[in-house]
Amino acid sequence: MEVSDTHILPIKMSTTFAKGNVNAFILPGSPVTLVDAGTHLPGSIQQLREGMAEVGFTFQDVEQIVVTHMHTDHYGGVSAILQETDAVVYVHRQAMGMLEHGKEGFERDEEFMRRFIEECGAAELLKRQRKFYPLHWKEVRYLEEGDVLTAGGREWKVLYTPGHSQSDICLWDVDSGDTIVGDFLLQEISSNAFITPPDKREERRPRPLMQMRESFRHVYELPLSTIYPGHGDPFTDFRALIDQRLQEQEDRCDKIVLLLAQGPRTVYELTRELFPWLQENGMFLGLSEVQGHLDLLLERSRVQVERRDSVAWYQAVQER
Ligand SMILES: [Zn+2]
């Protein structure tokens, strides 16, 4: 089969996450490029293998892999592919900590997360013990905002769009407007802004919701056309989607202020009031979401925070 250079070939794989399927994309043409790789689970690797075979490619054909962000449903399959090819892996520079700092860095990050959960007033959730899995990717090259990457016979401009994670990038084909966005813009669900530990050089954690809003501003005026997301089908009207997400954030901010007008609350208490359906294993997403909005409300001086012992209590600032 003769495959046109201009194609972006989607491959869907299942995950165990609430988001359901995750997409990878084959960019045929030189160099043959795989964008994202699903989870590490054998079933997912098999789906990737079969999906690629359907469009005429094997793992051995892959010359380079681009990871849109360092979440396991996007990079988990990379190691399995690298057993069959010497493909170069491209990822944003922010992933360097995770790829190169090893167990020590992992433990420092885990300690930060434990303190964050405690600060949320959610110490009862601190049962989880995550295990460290080192990633042995042979050749990694780091990308930054403005870099140009040749992939699948086209030139793609790298846009750095942190918020959902610290390593989110989009690949923008300036000529056609086609843009592969990872989880930065999703139609079916609003993309969570995950609380993450500070970078090694920093003292304070990033404020992910604020970063996401900045990333929205960064792309808003760009002439992007078809958007290829990490979950769900391609779509076009990305500005309407951004407008909708920004409005949802305003509504959520107002809800939080209303709750805080009734008295001081912890992040955990707010999370359970706003998302009563969340089970324990999804609670971290809720805590992240609420903390992100509180960061924004603090910035706008609509709330204030007071720390008692290791717990942060938020209250509404009385309007004069
Ligand atoms: Zn994802």
From TrEMBL:
<dbReference type="GO" id="GO:0016787">
    <property type="term" value="F:hydrolase activity"/>
</dbReference>
<keyword id="KW-0378">Hydrolase</keyword>
<dbReference type="InterPro" id="IPR001279">
    <property type="entry name" value="Metallo-B-lactamas"/>
</dbReference>
<comment type="function">
    <text>Counteracts the endogenous Pycsar antiviral defense system. Phosphodiesterase that enables metal-dependent hydrolysis of host cyclic nucleotide Pycsar defense signals such as cCMP and cUMP.</text>
</comment>
<dbReference type="Pfam" id="PF00753">
    <property type="entry name" value="Lactamase_B"/>
</dbReference>
<protein>
    <submittedName>
        <fullName>MBL fold metallo-hydrolase</fullName>
    </submittedName>
</protein>
<feature type="domain" description="Metallo-beta-lactamase">
    <location>
        <begin position="21"/>
        <end position="231"/>
    </location>
</feature>
<dbReference type="InterPro" id="IPR050662">
    <property type="entry name" value="Sec-metab_biosynth-thioest"/>
</dbReference>
<dbReference type="InterPro" id="IPR036866">
    <property type="entry name" value="RibonucZ/Hydroxyglut_hydro"/>
</dbReference>
